[in-house]
């Protein structure tokens, strides 16, 4: 049984998620992908697609800045480390699992 969530509650929860992800810069996107099958970049893509579907013109860079809280170049420089082979393997397994 699916319980409906009001748009207002969904918007508040979404903003809290974005704030949480901006605060938790120690959580690498690759680890989020490996564990949950999505990351900040995925969330930004979904925001961009939703905006564009609603008639907006948000670009990928604008969406990523909205989710990361800064331009993507700055995020990578300050918060993104090089992915390890284990992280890449876990991400690939998660992506395959999501494709089923």
Describe this structure in words.
The structure is a single chain. The protein is mainly α. It has a single domain (10-99), classed as SMc04008-like (SMc04008-like fold). The chain is built from 6 helices and no strands. The radius of gyration is 15 Å and the shape is globular.
Question: What would the keywords be for this entry?
Answer:
single chain; 100 residues; SMc04008-like fold
Global outline = globular
Approximate strand percentage: under 5%
Structural class: mainly alpha
Kindly report the average pLDDT value.
93
* Cα distance spanning the termini: 22 Å
CATH superfamily: SMc04008-like
How many strands, what sense, and barrel or not for the largest sheet?
A: none
CATH topology type? SMc04008-like fold
Number of helices: 6
Radius of gyration: 15 Å
Following the backbone from N to C, one meets helices and strands in this order, namely HHHHHH
| Total E-strand runs | 0
Question: Spans of 5+ residues with little confidence (pLDDT < 50)?
Answer: none
CATH class: Mainly Alpha
CATH architecture: Orthogonal Bundle
Helix content: over 70%
In the residues, how many domains can be counted? 1
Topology, please?
Elements: H1 7-23, H2 29-36, H3 40-53, H4 60-68, H5 72-79, H6 85-99
Short description:
With 100 residues, the chain is mainly α. The protein contains 6 helices and no strands.
């Amino acid at each position: 049984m699916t319980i409906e969530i009001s748009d207002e509650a969904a918007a508040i929860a979404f903003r809290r998620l974005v704030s949480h992800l901006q605060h938790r810069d120690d959580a690498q996107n690759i680890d989020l992908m490996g564990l949950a099958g999505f990351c900040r970049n995925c969330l930004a893509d979904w925001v961009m697609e939703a905006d564009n579907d609603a008639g907006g013109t948000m670009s990928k860079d604008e969406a990523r800045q909205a989710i990361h809280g800064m331009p993507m170049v700055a995020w990578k420089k300050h918060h993104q480390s090089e992915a390890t082979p284990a992280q890449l393997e876990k991400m690939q397994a998660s992506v395959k699992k999501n494709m089923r």
